[in-house]
Amino acid sequence: MNRRPARRRIAVATATAVLAAGTFALGAGVAGADAGSTSGKQAKPATKAQVLGLFDQWNAALQTGDPKKVADLYAKDAVLLPTVSNQVRTDRAAIVDYFEHFLQSKPKGTKIESVVNVLDRDTVIDTGVYEFALTDHDTGEKSTVKARYTYAYEKQPNGTWLIVNHHSSKMPQG
């Protein structure tokens, strides 16, 4: 009788059990790490006012006219689905490129409606409707663009909040 297949099945079953136990232990360790800081004090989640202030910071960066200052508010692997471009931006250079063009219209954003979801102490989402007052850089003609938005922010190890995902799309006519 050949015992090799039985031994192989036992070895595979044992390896699977060890891998599953290790995965469970890793998951429990990660979950436990979220329970508090090294000082034993649990970090507090962001407040709605703090999250809304992140937009104000972003809008203020727009007012500088410097696309790099705006891009500094995005994580290095952020995704930007911008309002007035069909191109998905997935790195700093592409985000800077978008803002080089968008900032020529001297945009000033105003939130109309905002829904804040605090997912955990390091992740928040701000979704709603905003509008931008724009000035055509060639003619000086003023216009307003109303759009839906979603900002997903993550708190970085240094305590700053960065945009990891930003989607903005013009409101449909209707």
Describe how the helices and strands are arranged.
Blueprint: H1 4-33, H2 48-64, H3 67-71, E1 74-81, H4 92-102, E2 108-120, E3 123-135, E4 142-155, E5 161-170
Give a brief rundown of this model:
Helices cover 36% and strands 33% of the residues.
Task: Note down, in words, how this protein is organized.
There is one protein chain. The protein is of the alpha+beta class. The chain is 36% helix and 33% strand. It is built from 4 helices and 5 strands. The chain has a 5-stranded mixed beta sheet. A hairpin with a 5-residue loop joins strand 4 and strand 5. The termini are far apart. About 20% of the residues have low confidence.
- Low-confidence runs: 6-40
Radius of gyration: 23 Å
State the helical fraction.
25-40%
Question: How are strands sequenced across the largest beta sheet?
Answer: 1-5-4-3-2
Number of strands: 5
Distance between the termini: 77 Å
Structural class: alpha+beta
The averaged pLDDT comes out at 83
What key phrases describe this protein's structure?
single chain, 174 residues, 5-stranded mixed beta sheet, 4 helices
